[in-house]
Amino acid sequence: MIERAIVPAVRAALGRQAAVALLGPRQVGKTTLALEIARQSNAIYLDLQKVSDRAKLIDPSAYLSQVEDRLVILDEVHRTPDLFPILRGVIDEGRRRGHRTGRFLILGSASTELLRQSGESLAGRISYLDMGPVHPGEVDPGEDERLWVRGGFPDSFLARSGADSMEWRQDLIRTYLERDVPQFGPRIPAETLRRFWTMLAHGQGGVHNAAKLGAGLEISGQTVSRYTDLLVDLLLVRRLASYHVDVGKRLVKSPKVYIRDSGLLHALLGIGDREALLGHPVVGGSWEGFVVESLLAVAPLRTVPGHYRTSGGAEVDLVLELPGGRRWVVEIKRSPGAVPSRGFHEAFRDLEAERGWIVHAGSGRHPLSKGMEAIGLRDLMAELKSS
Question: CA distances (Å), 115 to each of 232, 235, 239, in order?
């Protein structure tokens, strides 16, 4: 089993709050992590997809009050939205009897729906943690290229062969299109959404152009936004907002869009192995998305990410506003010999950045100019974690 870096954060959150919601896409490893916590802490695990486990909650207040001294893990909780108001009462009753923390671990695959349901009922009683696919800090250094090609879903990364990994990812895509999308969103033809998802993959890391996407599918820009919202809510797509700062220049305000898992990106485009990826036009965007997700996975809490681009050509791939208002700017390249562009230097000055980084696919680091450094992905992840 892959040792997930989020485990200490989950335990810490359970130690300070009554309920913790662990959010992440399907098959990312939430249930495996929760079962390990259950094994170590004598917790109760309820899979609300199972009729037998839902039957235990026919009278949820009575059942949960009887086990208030144990952690209860609720998986697939979106299937029982009426449970959230009851959890509020159970938590408040338990608090009056001294059971203030570590009551419920809630697992969810659709961020907006779960946040809405829980936020309305459990405000002040719940903490939220995001669990993404496996990132480089959770595997051996020699496996980084395989992780990039196959993606971070554990079953895809650990598959016996590249072909098995690709089949697994294709099956996951079908599951989302045929099961999860109808469950969480409005009725959308599966083939239309697959085409849309694939179009996003072809534009990996590009500025989002709803009108262009809509024209390709013969749908309106409003419908494009609705489809994008759904994939963002299912934690499959990242919409990286434009970073706004008053610099007296015209800014490109459209977000950049990424397929969050590189393995799913490659499956959508039919890219089966590393050699095919290196010869594909999406290779730069794929590497950029992989780096963005890896960095955000280890960034300090309350870090604000964005991208920066002006009409005059100043541009950086990733802006990180760290706690305390410090700004780091990141340019993402595959080559260890890459040098910062004029636009990167200009953006560095515009944003009054504390540090500037050129992230490459190699190892090691070396200075470029004052405040700027070329650095490998793992080294920058370590810098972020220690910041």
Answer: 13, 13, 18
Rounded to two decimals, the pTM is 0.92
Q: Can you read off the two tokens belonging to residue 51?
A: 């009729």
pLDDT at 115 over 70: no
In order of start, what are the domains of the chain with their CATH numbers?
7-130 (3.40.50.300), 136-386 (no CATH)
Distances (CA, A) of 201 to 184, 193, 225, 256, 282: 22, 12, 16, 12, 8
Beta bridge partners of 207: 256
Provide the residue type at 161 as one letter: S
Q: List Cα–Cα distances, 62 to 69, 213, 270, in angstroms.
A: 14, 51, 51
Judge whether 28 and 17 are in contact, CB under 8 Å. no
CA distance 348 to 316: 8
For residues 381 and 294, what is the distance between their CA atoms, to the nearest angstrom? 7
Give the side-chain half-sphere CA count within 13 A for 115: 11
- Can you give the pLDDT at residue 191? 87
Asked if residue 110 has pLDDT above 80, the reply is no
Q: Are strands 237-240 and 126-130 parallel, antiparallel or unpaired?
A: unpaired
Angstrom distance (rounded) from CA 213 to CA 210: 5
Q: How far apart are CA 333 and CA 340, in angstroms?
A: 10
Angle at CA of residue 7, ends 19 and 60, nearest 5°:
30
In 178-276, DSSP assigns E strands to: 237-240, 256-259
Which of 361, 385, 182, 215 shows the shortest CA–CA distance to 277?
361
Dig out the tokens for 250 from the structure: 């015209």
- Strands 365-369, 327-332: parallel, antiparallel or unpaired by DSSP? unpaired
pLDDT mean over 285-292: 98
